[in-house]
Every structure is written in C-alpha cells, then in structure tokens.
Design brief:
By secondary structure, the protein is α+β, with helices and mostly antiparallel strands. It is built from eleven helices and 32 strands. The protein starts with 5 loop residues before the first helix and ends with a strand.
Length: about 575
C-alpha cells in the first residue's frame, strides 16, 4: 500500500523546497536561477553561462563580482553531470551566496526536478531566486478537460495549471445550411425508376426505388426514395444543355453538380453559367411503355455519369408548384437525365443527422481521453452549439461537465480563452474535495466515533497503526527537536513553534540541553504514517474549512480504524 500518492508527495516536497528558497536573499544581484526545459540541450545553457561569467568581471562591487563568478562556475560544473540533455522533466538550478554574514561567503547550489515538464529556458540573476515557474506547478491539484467546439470543428485538450495539452482536433461532417425556399423541380420532370420505368416526379411515392449517382465512383445505381416534398416558388429557370441535349425546369435554389478543375462541386441553378459542365447520365434512351398508364415511359440508362455543357438558362415567370424527392445515402437522383440534389426538407434533416453524428464523434473522443483521467470537463465555444452538445450528452456519464463558457474561437485561441474564463469554476472544484474531507472529519469528531485530533492522540494512533488516514495542515509551522540533558542524560522530544527559541534547559533537573536533531513537525508525523503505510491527506489553508481545521483542531487529525 502506498502511504501517499506520488503526485501529492512530490508536490509537498516541492512546496517545502520553495519555502526554503523563498526565505533566502542575497546582497545585491548574487542569486542565480537557471531553468532548462524538458530534454533541453545542456550546451546551450552552458554557453550562456560562460558568456555571463565573462560579463561578470565588469561588476563594480568586488564581493558581488566574486560571489557571482563562483556561483556561475559552480553551476557550469554541475551541468556537466547531465551529459548532453536535460532530464525528461527539465531541471531548475539555484545557486548563490546565501550567507547572513556579509563578511563571509556561503555559495550553495540547489537542484529541483519539477513535478511537470518545464517548457521554459531561463537565466536570471537577482537578489532573490526566481521561483514563479515552479510556484505555478505547486498550485496545480488536478487535471481538467477542455473542449471548444462550434458547428464546424472541435478541439479537445487537458489543462493542468497553466499548461494546455491539445489531445485531438476533428471537423464536423454536417452540411451547411441552405436558403429558405427549397430546391425543387417542375412536376412533369421525368425520374428513372430502378425497373426502367420513367415516371413524373409528381407521381413518385415514398418507398419507390429510383436511379441516383454515387459521386465517389461516378456511377449510376438504385436508391430508395423516402419522401416527397411539394412547395410553391416564384423564381425558377429552364436549363438546357448540349451533347447530350437535355432540358429541365428547377427553382433558383435547386442544386446541381458541376465538374471543375477542383473536382465535383455543388451549385445553385441561379448560379449556373453558359458552358458549365453539369453532371448527367452518360447515355439515356426511352420509349412509351405498352399498356402502361399515361405519363409513364419505358427507358434505358447507362451505368456511368458524364457531363453536358449548359447552353441556355431562361427565367420562368410567375408562381408555380414544384416537387422534389428525398433520397437518403445518395443525396441525389436522376431527373430528365440531370444528376440533381435532394429536397430542402430532407436536406435539413440530413443536416440534423450529420450534426448528431458530429456530436457523437466528439463524445467518443471525450470518452477516450477523459474517463477516469480528469476531475471534470469545461466546454466552450461560440453560439448555441456547445449548449446543444451538452443537452444531448453523447459522452460517458462518468464525465462531469463543470461548466459551459462562451468563447469567440475554437482551436488554441479558444482553449486559451476558455482557460482564462474558467478560474472560478476550477477554484470551486479544487475546494470541493477538501471541504468534503473536513466536513466528514468534523462530523466524526462531534459524534465521538471514528476521528481524533491533536498531536498526542494522533501520534499514539499512528504508532500502534490504529489510524486509518492522517490529516495534516500545510500551515502547521512547528519544529520538533530531539535533545539530551547534559546532567541527567534524559532524552526529550520538544515541539517549538516556528520562530520560537530552541529548548535550552531540562525541565526535570534544570541542566543544559544539547540539541541532537531537528525536523519539521509535519515531516515527523508524515514519516510515522509512512512507516505504518497509513494514507496521508495534506490540508491547505486556502479554504475556510482548511483554515478552521488549523485553528480549531491544531492542524493535526486522523480517521481511526476503531475506538
């Protein structure tokens, strides 16, 4: 059993180191801070430091010049131990004269291997060590998922502190919206049925199998018509082609397919130009069906798609009734030999289906990256897409959406904007876990059941493995001294608040005490818990519950296995 999560232990040790370094100051600009990024080239920083060593000879103050030169030499020598490349997480090196006695130098070097990969390369010489990049890491407690999306694209990332890692980008397969008014054909337009019959588009019913084109292979096949759409329109065109000679009447917003240097593209009837190469069935033939209803012809159609050049576009005046069909999968059908697009009504439904598919794809990637790996997810983006996505919830129920935020962008810009607007959301979430622990602890203390507090009872419970979980405040600023009386030889353990005087006289005989050990009280208790494989929870001072734990319960408590 692990006594304390590795990340928690590393963070606690880093906090201790930073507190130690933060308390140091130099006389003038004698303290040097060096940051080398993850797997960074050592020779680059060594070269930089050698240049600085050369310039340091110009420092006017002799003591500062000497101390800076010695610190630089010490760092350059230390860098040789890394070979050509920095460690996988990078390294931060602090060196300088930290002596309190101005007449005597004490050049010390401190090395910190960060809990997360460094992304910066820094050299700084000042009166204090530059600790900000590491302090940002200490503030990090959890990872969060970031999702920014609109109707066209989506970016997924993780946020840890101020570090954003992009995980995946995907685009929407949803079709663009079309102009209100539909895309329809004259009722007497002829449609090829799969059995060779030619039928007026107005006579086609849902369930009829008709001819349409597979635009990926440019071949004609059989497709099911699922719906028919009838509307009135005032704007239409009669379109004629040559080679072969074809003619069709379509509303201004009906879509045709043309072949260009960029491949096959969609175009509205109103935007066609003389000479455009529209897609058509390559060969068409037909005859009246013997004994069949009036208006039905018997025809033949090639299996290949060809092109015909637009020869004429003539506006059709007046309001007339027009018809169009819905053909799923193909999204087109053959009408008077032309390859024409679906109906507007079905097109809108296809948009809805495509958007739903897009949302499901985003949800699948969220499941892949976020289940059991982040504390929660924050979703942002422009417009209503993000709200519609959250309402649909196409992701695993274990993923907790912490908030929905308006952003103006997607991709990296949107991620940075989302991070900037999520401070309150994340701050609240960080406090939730701690609040729950302290509330449970206080409930157990009040009920007199499975919790204890105070150094004496907790230390005893840790020693006999009665404690199940140690709670200790990071604001506990006490030292624990080991001392021996020079007269009666009695060994003592004495706690003194940070800044207080060290014990000097034996309480039993009044003899002089000799200090043989000194350790932070928090470290002493954690070591005792580690020895018994007891879980440790570090309680911060940043929340009201954490502050109450320190003030009312002395910052030391434990859940116990039995009373």
């Amino acid at each position: 059993m692990v006594w304390m999560e590795d990340a928690t232990k590393i963070k606690y040790e880093l906090k201790k180191t930073l507190a130690h370094l933060r308390g140091m100051h130099g006389s003038g600009t004698e303290l040097i801070s060096v940051y080398i990024p993850a797997k960074g080239a050592i020779h680059e920083m060594s070269g930089k430091l050698n240049e600085e060593a050369g310039q340091a000879t110009n420092i006017k103050s002799k003591s500062t010049r000497t101390n800076v030169g010695m610190a630089l030499a010490k760092i350059i020598h230390h860098l040789k131990t890394y070979g050509h490349q920095a460690p996988v997480s990078g390294v931060a090196i602090f060196c300088g004269n930290v002596s309190d006695n101005q007449s005597k130098s004490d050049i010390q070097l401190f090395t910190v291997y960060p809990s997360e990969p460094l992304a910066v390369q820094i050299y700084r010489c000042d009166s204090r060590f530059f600790l900000e990049p590491l302090e940002r890491m200490v503030d990090v407690k959890d990872s969060y998922g970031l999702v920014v999306l609109d109707g066209r694209e989506c970016t997924l990332a993780t946020l840890r502190g101020t570090n954003i890692t992009v995980l995946h980008r995907l685009n929407s397969t949803a079709h663009a919206k079309i102009r209100k008014g539909g895309q329809c054909l004259a009722p007497d337009t002829m449609v090829f049925a799969s059995d060779g019959n030619l039928m007026r588009v107005a006579d086609v019913e849902a369930g009829t199998q008709i001819k349409g084109a597979d635009l990926a292979t440019l071949t004609i096949g059989n497709w099911i018509c699922s719906d028919k759409f009838v509307t009135k329109a005032k704007h239409a065109f009669k379109i004629s082609t040559i080679k072969p000679r074809l003619e069709i009447v379509a509303t201004a917003w009906h879509r045709f397919f043309i072949k260009t240097t960029n491949g096959v593209e969609e175009i509205f009837a109103k935007d066609l130009k003389i000479g455009d190469a529209v897609l058509v069935a390559k060969k068409i033939g037909g005859r009246h069906g013997k004994g069949r209803k009036r208006g039905i012809l018997r025809g033949s159609l090639s299996e290949d798609v060809g092109v015909a050049r637009v020869a004429e576009l003539v506006p059709v005046d007046g309001e007339h009734e027009y018809v169009d069909l819905t053909v799923p999968n193909a999204f087109n059908f053959v009408a008077n030999g032309f390859i024409v697009h679906n109906s507007a009504r079905r097109y809108e439904r296809l948009i809805e289906e495509s958007i739903e598919l897009y949302y499901k794809r985003v949800g699948e990637y969220m499941d892949r990256y976020y289940v059991n790996s982040v504390k929660g997810v924050i979703i942002g983006g422009p417009g209503p897409t993000k709200e519609n996505f959250v309402k649909m919830s196409p992701f695993n129920y274990q993923i907790k959406v912490l908030g929905v935020v308006d952003t103006g962008y997607t991709e990296e810009t949107g991620l940075r904007e989302l991070m900037g607007k999520s401070g309150d959301i994340i701050g609240e979430q960080e406090a939730v876990k701690e609040r729950q622990i302290i509330e449970r602890f206080m409930h157990e203390v009040v009920s007199g059941t499975m919790a204890i507090y105070g150094e004496g009872p907790v230390r005893e419970a840790l020693a006999i493995n009665k404690a199940k979980e140690l709670l200790i405040s990071e604001g506990l600023k006490w030292k624990r001294y080991g001392a021996v009386c020079n007269s009666c030889k009695e060994e003592k353990q004495i706690n003194v608040k940070e800044g207080g005087e060290k014990p000097s006289a034996c309480a039993k005989c009044g003899g002089q005490l000799s200090i043989v050990s000194a350790v932070d009280l928090i470290d002493d208790l954690i070591a005792l818990a580690e020895k018994g494989s007891i879980k440790v929870e570090i309680i911060s001072n940043d929340t009201s519950e954490g502050a109450q734990f320190l003030q009312s319960f002395y910052g030391i408590g434990a859940f116990v296995r039995y009373r």
